[in-house]
Predict the structure.
Amino acid sequence: MVIIVTGGTFGIGRAISLKLARDGHRVIAFGLDSRQPSSVAEHGTATLPAEAATFGLHIDTLEADVAQAADVARVVDFALATHGEIGGLVNNAAIGPLGTILTTSEDVWRRVIDVNLKGAYLASKAVLPHMISRQRGSIANVGSGGGWGKPNMLAYSASKGGMFALAAALAYDHAADGIRVNTVVPRPATLSGMSLGRIGGDMSRFRPAVAAVGRVGTADDCANVVAFLFSAAAAGLNGAILDAGSLPRQGGPVPAPP
């Protein structure tokens, strides 16, 4: 399957791109090489193909802004020109500046919604006609426990809450077209450009919580669930929310082991 991964060159998106490539999919990952608000991710379009090559894999990478319709169209055109089809999309690109409503400026609000929610809208809108023409396709949204509201995450929470509704609406609208749309919720504080950006890139301040599975979670935990959604075993799932975070959206935090 040909799968486009937004924000696919760093952190969770990078793990998703590599996992999908390992599973035999043809992956097009795109993102911005410059650092974005609250993130330390950069230069991924060059380093990801090099990393993939060490595993004998190939991943196409492009620098593009998911919040710009013209950039998204360019990625879709590349996928069609290079591979002749598009079977899957992972809406992963996100930024997450912290702040309450009183400390979040209108510019920050706009950029968070543009990247996290509008980006998923633009990417889905661009690939859907090609999936509909083939009467099959799969879209996986990367959500967040913040989508149910988290302290000091106003804009991010609003955008991720919108992702849940967007996925459900798409699933309803296009089930008859043979297209499935599901959402994966990663574990909080998974190592990513965003989680590092929130602490100024200082790894010594990174404090991942122990997940309910009894160990610290990784980006691969989310990547494995996303990859499942593109497998034949997930053919019956549509409009589902899969919690790859081990209980964080159920009310957490999970108690530390004794």
